[in-house]
Amino acid sequence: MEETGKEISGQTLDVSAAAAEVSAAGVECDACEGRKRKAGQTCLECLASCCVPHLDLHNNRLHGGKRHKPVEATEKLQEITCPKHGKLLEVFCRTDQQCICYLCITNAHRTHDVISTEVVVAEKKIQLDKMQKRTSERIQTWEKAEEDLRHAIKTFKKSAEEAELKSDRLFTELICCMEKMQKVVKDLILAQKDAVVKEAEELVGKVQENIGALMGRDAELQNLKQLSQQHNHIQFLQSQSAYSISPLMKVIRPPALSVHPNCSFEPTTDAVSELIKKLNLFYQWSFITISERVKNTGIVSSPLPRTRQELLKYATKLTVDPDSVHDKIHLSEDDAVLTAVRESEIYFFHTKRFEKRQQALCKEGLRGSPRYWEVNCGNGGTWVSIGVSYKGIRRSGEHAPLFGRCKNSWALRKYGFSYYFWHDNKETSIKSSSLSPKIGVYLDHNAGVLAFYTVSKYTSLLYKVQTTFTEPVYAGFGLSGIGSQIQLCDLDSED
Fold first, then answer.
1. What pLDDT, on a 0 to 100 scale, did the predictor assign at position 10?
2. 453 C-beta neighbours (distance < 10 Å), count
């Protein structure tokens, strides 16, 4: 009779039942004989896997109740044991970046930096948690960026549809307005034609009446002339017509009418042609503005230049407009250096000249592609300002503003090594540790970006403003205090 069970230290094990518990992918018990049970845990000290009954025997009887280091059953014991000594890999060698056993420390890794694997794992877990946190934060940042982009795309598409409909409506209104004007001009021409022709035709009728009357009188005069030639004086004098010659000459006189030298509507058509020319010119300029604004409308803006090499790609040469310089500012002969002085300079009067504030503008109107320029700021005076302004900024009178103190100008004001940004009479303090006297200005008119940099060995962004420019801007400079100075840098002369 075949034995169906085995006794292990007083316990009877059903081998057939145990065999049924072991799955194809499971770990077998190293202590079972014959058919193997499924191992529940692996002892890292004995390097053996045991089922539940043999694990109890392993803990209670073989080792006197002392628990070793059990882990979930694994068949990859060769991966966690030292191939040279057969011991558990419990030490990490930082020098060689590998796991070793304690016996390896006394041999090949004697002078190396070693540490317990538990400590290394704890450190790695902390690093892993930090990396996972940073990764999670970056994922959230990118997800937020994706959400913002999708929302921007949706908004952009909706805005484009609304702009298309509104443009169609406005152009339809413009066409209707032009058609109405066309009809009005046409009606004016027809009405004038009818009135003038009617008046002229009435005069023609009167002229014809006078001509008929004169022709009748002429026939009578011919008869009288014949009587006068027949030497019959009595009959001639007794004729009634002879007595009406004087009254006839007094009543019927030559007409005082004259035909107008410009009796055509050519001046009218000339005026319409002039209107069309002006409209076409206006349309062309308007289309340029519309086209630029369409091109400037976008979802993602270009990144701001970071290095001076990137900025110098957009270098532009500027020239101070002498007609705009305040009379308390001395302008150098090359029109590149502005210095605040005590005595007024002798300048000719010009409507572009700043009369109230010690300021000046450059000649060049800036728009379109990005531009970049640099200035050196002197150490004298109280402060200097560097910025941009629309051409129409007020230049005289009590209310003439400083750059940045109105809606149509933007300016960086520099007090020594302290900086403030001004626009629409609002001040923003700027923190900077730079001691460089050189300031760089980057302008992207299309994108509505104005940025200020400190320029030295390293270029550092001071302040950036995002706005919308509705017309060309001009570089401008302001000085306060005798001796304050600004020098335009010649970027073309640099290598």
1. 37
2. 25
